[in-house]
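ok so for the tutorial part 2 we go from a plain amino acid sequence to predicted structure tokens. step 1 is just haveing the sequence, like this:
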Amino acid sequence: MTYRSALVLAAIFLASCAAKPPAAPLEAVDEPPPPASSSAPAMAMAEGLLRPAGNGITMEGSHRLLTDVGQELLLKSATIQLNDYVDGKVRVSGSVRPSVENSMMLMDVETIERVLPTSASGSTVSASSLSSSSSEAASSAMSSSEAPSSSSVPASSSSLAASSSKQPVSSAKPAASSAAAASSSVGSTVDVSASVKAMAKATVNSANFTSQYCTSHIGFCVPYHRNWYHQSFGALSPSLWHVEIADHEMDEAGQGVIKVDLVSGALTGAEGVAVEQGTTVVASRQWTGNRHFEISGPVELKAAVEFMANGLGVAGE
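step 2 — the prediction. this is what the tokens look like for a chain of 317 residues:
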């Protein structure tokens, strides 16, 4: 190849390189934002029986909710006194997330509503409003009947202590008590004869009556036999507070055998003495604010009714 030919080839090569466009600069590509975290709590509502969490179940949640379909939900709340609703059927709502220790769900309760038993017409009766605190729940419970002039709990239980000398029962036939009237209208068709026979065999003394039902709403405790059960139904008209005792678990009002009722009005007659009213006995105790307790049951359980009435006292003492 001649020197001139080499120069021509070199010129052609340089021309072809210069014709190529410059490489385009790299553009920044926006990455899609990360997906939202799926661990954020969700809002939910549930209904069921409220129980204490119990020992050894979990370190999370102070209470648990047993739903009608057999599911269990852990509960906690920084604003609501869940103890005030123990052993009652309630409707709760709040944020729900999985618990850390096991596969159960944990709800931070924001609202709670007491659900009362189904009425004769088949409709469910519930509390008049959602409660965000125990004081609101207490005032809601009292709204269905005459409110007392004062709802304060006495500073000591000296006025509630059983008297060593009982007042004699008047020979005149006593008027039917509020508790007896309530018992005749609530669950009067429930057959508890087998329970009455079983409960009548129990020995009535302080060694056996070691269980207690207590509520901070009203501020009282009442003892009952260690092998029996209690169920609180809250404000159940005409009572300001209604609790039932039996030798079996209860789901609805009227399934119990012994009834504990807080009613309006001052006590008339003997205090702490079981008075027979037909097939029923009623023992009464004076309470605060123009109110009194009436504990009623079958005549076969007269000793138990009287023991419970005399054992009724101020919660926490």
